[in-house]
Amino acid sequence: MTYLHTDPELNARDEPTARERELIDAVDALLTTADPAGIIRDETQWYLGTALEDGDNLELALPLGWDREVALRVLLTSESFTVGWGGELGESPLVASFESAAPSLVEMTAAVEAELSRELRVSERRRLFGGASELHLRRSDGWTDLLRGGTPSREQDLKRASHEATLRTV
After folding, report:
1. What is the rounded CA–CA span in Å between residue 47 and residue 45?
2. Which of 21-30, 33-42, 86-95 has maximum average pLDDT?
3. Residue 68 pLDDT > 50
4. What are residue 169's phi and psi, to 5 degrees?
5. Contact between residue 163 and residue 123 where contact means Cβ atoms under 8 Å apart
6. Tens digit of pLDDT for each residue in 125-151?
7. Residue 154 burial by CB count (10 A; 0-12/13-18/19+): exposed, middle or buried?
8. The dihedral of CA 139, 142, 145, 151: what is its sign?
9. Pair 136, 120: CB distance under 8 Å
10. Using 50, 70 and 90 to split pLDDT, how confident is the model at 70?
11. Nearest Cα to 85, choosing from 125, 127, 115?
12. 19-32 pLDDT per residue, tens
């Protein structure tokens, strides 16, 4: 995988397992289609054996804001697979959108692809280098404010967050 890169200080292992490599390659193929300019792909990082339970896990972080404040996160362990939004490295995502105990590669890829088709609503950037002051994620039950810890979005915040974007796969 050419565009993804690891941070050696945060990896417990040097090489992904065969299953992890399949997932990394599948996500790279999705990003090649969904992100032809390579903006998300170039910023994506993968970590082997982060500080979850033990060294047996793969974590992918796909930053979607220019300031990398909110990321789509993929977490594969020996027992589970999770796709979600926000949260810190080594922790579960703030908002989980797909969880499974033993999914196939096709199911894992489909879950990531679904998230790359989510509708987002963001406010104007803060002045200078502050980044977006709000980032709302459209879910089946309404909007979720990722910058306020995954809480339901308030109507006044949605009005301020006037710029809508849909991440799409072709």
Report:
1. 7
2. 21-30
3. yes
4. -105, 150
5. yes
6. 544 445 556 678 888 888 888 877 788
7. middle
8. negative
9. yes
10. confident
11. 115
12. 999 999 999 888 88
The dihedral through the CA atoms of 80, 82, 87, 88 has a sign that is: positive
- State both tokens at 60: 């992918």
Q: Report the half-sphere exposure of 116 (CA within 13 A, side-chain side).
A: 24
Mention every residue, 6+ apart, whose C-beta is less than 8 A from residue 25.
Answer: 1
Give a three-class secondary structure readout of the chain. CCCCECCHHHCCCCCCCHHHHHHHHHHHHHHHHHCCCCHHHHHCEEEECCCCCCCCEEEEEEECCCCCCCEEEEEEECCCEEEEECCCCCCCCCEEEEEECCCCHHHHHHHHHHHCCCEEEECCECCCCCCECCEEEEECCEEEEHHHCCEECCHHHHHHCCEEEECCCC
In the chain, where are the structural domains located? 18-168
- pLDDT tens-digit readout, 1-15: 445 667 777 788 888
Quote the pLDDT of residue 158: 80
The pair of structure tokens assigned to 24 is 């990394």
Q: Which one has a higher pLDDT value, 57 or 36?
A: 57
Compare 112 and 49 and report the one with higher pLDDT. 112
Q: Which tokens sit at 21?
A: 């490599």
